[in-house]
Amino acid sequence: MTLPRDREEEFRIRIFTFIQDQIRKVIDMYKIALNMLESFVQDSSLSKLEEFYQKILKADESAKDTSRIIEMEMGNVGALLTNKEDFIRLVTEIDEIADTIEGVAYRMVNLAKMKAKLSRELNSKLLELGDMVLSTLNRLREALLAITLNANTFQQKIRETEEHEKKVDDIYRTLDLAILTSDLKIAPLLLTREIVWMLEEIADTAEKIVDTLRALSLTIF
């Protein structure tokens, strides 16, 4: 049994609207983390970084509130919605990005506690990586906005998301090697590598979301 086509379409658009709000909140959360990263590079105080971290925790809770609402909405329809599993996967993957952002912020606070000082080259590449991850997330959000409106725009934004993810990969590889060959002590070196890996992981998850969106688009366009 399936929902009547008009009702299913109405419900699908409603779910996508909630998911668009979820990704907006997660990107806002990432922007706070990016500001935190810039503050770290500028050698801001530990208390300033901890303040950013508290803002990220608050933003994370708001994003998770939205994901819980989506789960409740889908629960009301049960198994009647076509591609329900893809919708669940989409919400879960966006949640994973939020969790990774929180992990990056937590590690930045601890890196600051170690009083680690990165070189100008590392700081520059770190900010470049952070900015490219944001560009990837912005293209992903645009794809999510387009999926209920225009097939051509949707496909274009999907391609742009993938292109930006590849740029993230390139920056990540260069930066990881630079960290390994730096004069950082072992503990801050490992923590810096983990932060960089997690930033790259955000873009990787965005690419997974692209695959999920492609599956969902087959029932729309």
Question: How many DSSP-defined strands?
Answer: 0
Task: State which percent range the strand residues make up.
Answer: under 5%
Average pLDDT, all residues? 93
- Unreliable stretches (pLDDT < 50, length at least 5) are none
The shape is: elongated
- The helix tally amounts to 6
Assign the CATH topology.
Answer: Methane Monooxygenase Hydroxylase, Chain G, domain 1
Structural class: mainly alpha
| Secondary-structure element pattern, one letter each | HHHHHH
**How many separate structural domains?**
1
State the distance separating the first and last CA atoms. 22 Å
What is the helix content? over 70%
Largest sheet: none
Radius of gyration: 19 Å
Which class in CATH terms? Mainly Alpha
CATH-wise, what's the superfamily?
Phosphate transport system protein phou homolog 2, domain 2
Proper CATH architecture: Up-down Bundle
Structure write-up:
- The protein is mostly helical.
- It has one domain (5-217): Up-down Bundle (Methane Monooxygenase Hydroxylase, Chain G, domain 1), CATH 1.20.58.
- It has 6 helices and no strands.
- It has helices at 5-41, 46-77, 84-113, 120-146, 151-180, 186-217.
- α1 (5-41) runs parallel beside α3.
- The chain starts with a helix and ends with a helix.
- The model has no long low-confidence stretch (mean pLDDT 93).
